[in-house]
């Protein structure tokens, strides 16, 4: 998690004491107990009106470098490898566009720039 949260530490000594406590629990009781205690603290804080910081970003790092990743075939290729024929694949494809695609097609139709629909003259 990003440790550069936008709050100024008003009591660095207390912060260090909390970190030291968590480090001690990690060393003596392991990650499972540490996780449990942190979850309990978060639950307590939320129930007492503390707004928890949220970030959609994570520290996840892909452990497989791109140079070692194998090619991943699309769904249709997998279906064919599993014995599907053209009819099977056709039945699995949604025949209707999404709302966004519909609006996009309508705008292209209006402006005369549409290329993926047949327009009878």
Would you mind describing this structure in some detail?
This protein is mainly α and 121 residues long. 52% of the residues lie in helices and 0% in strands. The protein is built from four helices and no strands. The longest helix has 36 residues, at 12-47. It is elongated, with a radius of gyration of 27 Å. It starts with 11 loop residues before the first helix and ends in a 10-residue tail after the last helix. 0% of the residues are buried. The model has no long low-confidence stretch (mean pLDDT 81).
Summarize, please.
With 121 residues, the protein is mainly alpha-helical. It has 4 helices and no strands. The chain is 52% helix and 0% strand.
Question: Top keywords for this entry?
Answer:
mainly alpha
- The number of helical elements comes to 4
Terminal-residue CA separation: 59 Å
Largest sheet: none
> If you compute it from the alpha carbons, what radius of gyration comes out, rounded to the nearest whole angstrom?
27 Å
> Helical percent range?
40-55%
Mean pLDDT: 81
Low-confidence blocks of residues: none
Order of helices and strands: HHHH
Structural class: mainly alpha
Q: Sum up the overall morphology in one term.
A: elongated
Please provide the count of β strands. 0
**Beta-strand proportion:** under 5%
């Amino acid at each position: 998690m990003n440790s550069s949260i936008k709050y100024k530490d008003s009591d660095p000594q207390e912060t260090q004491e909390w970190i030291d406590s968590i480090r001690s629990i990690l060393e003596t009781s392991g990650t499972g107990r540490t996780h449990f205690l942190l979850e309990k603290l978060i639950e307590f804080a939320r129930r007492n009106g503390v707004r928890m910081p949220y970030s959609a970003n994570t520290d996840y790092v892909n452990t497989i470098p791109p140079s070692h990743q194998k090619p991943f075939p699309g769904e249709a290729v997998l279906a064919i490898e599993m014995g599907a024929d053209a009819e099977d694949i056709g039945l699995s494809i949604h025949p209707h566009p999404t709302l966004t695609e519909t609006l996009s097609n309508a705008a292209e139709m209006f402006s005369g720039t549409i290329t993926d629909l047949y327009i009878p003259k």
